[in-house]
C-alpha cells in the first residue's frame, strides 16, 4: 500500500497526460505533435520511476516515436495471416512507420491476469495485517500496565 501511495501522483499525472493526448486528437486530428509530446512525457515519467503501464495503454503508444496510436487517425490497423493460420492484428504508426503486431488469440491471458502474478500482490496485505495485529496485541498490555486499577476493577466487576 505504501508503494502505491508513493507513486500515486505520478500515476495521476500519467493518466492526465494520456487523456489530454486523446482530447487533443479528438479536437484536431492534425495536431499529432502535441499529442506525441504528452505521450512522450508520460513515457518519460514511467521510465524514471520504473512504473508499469497497463497493456491496454501500452499498446496504444508507438514504440519508436511515442505517438498515440488511434486507428484511422494516427495509425492503420490491418489483419494479417501467416501460413499456419495464425492471425495477427498489425498496427502501423502513420508518423514513423513503426508497426506492432498482436497475436489474435482470445484465450491468451496476460501475465497481470494470471494467478501467479497475483501472489506478489497478496503478500502485501498479509504483511500489513500481521503488522496491524502486533500493535493490537501490545495495546491491551500497555493499557493494563498503565492503568492497573481500571483493569482490576473491570476484571472484578
Ligand atoms: Zn511512431
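^ C-alpha cells above, recovered residues below v
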Amino acid at each position: 500500500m505504501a508503494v502505491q501511495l508513493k507513486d500515486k501522483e505520478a500515476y495521476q499525472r500519467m493518466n492526465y497526460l494520456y487523456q489530454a493526448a486523446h482530447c487533443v486528437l479528438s479536437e484536431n486530428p492534425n495536431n499529432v505533435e502535441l499529442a506525441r509530446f504528452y505521450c512522450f512525457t508520460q513515457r518519460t515519467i514511467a521510465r524514471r520511476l520504473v512504473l508499469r503501464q497497463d497493456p491496454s495503454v501500452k499498446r496504444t503508444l508507438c514504440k519508436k516515436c511515442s505517438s498515440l496510436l488511434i486507428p484511422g487517425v494516427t495509425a492503420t490497423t490491418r489483419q494479417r495471416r501467416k501460413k499456419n493460420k495464425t492471425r495477427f492484428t498489425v498496427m502501423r504508426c502513420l508518423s514513423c512507420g513503426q508497426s506492432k503486431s498482436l497475436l489474435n488469440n482470445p484465450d491468451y491471458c496476460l501475465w497481470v491476469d494470471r494467478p501467479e502474478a497475483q501472489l506478489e500482490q497478496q503478500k502485501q496485505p498479509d504483511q500489513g495485517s500481521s503488522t496491524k495485529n502486533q500493535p493490537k496485541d501490545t495495546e491491551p498490555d500497555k493499557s493494563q500496565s498503565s492503568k492497573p486499577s481500571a483493569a482490576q476493577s473491570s476484571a472484578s466487576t
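The two ends are 42 Å apart (CA to CA).
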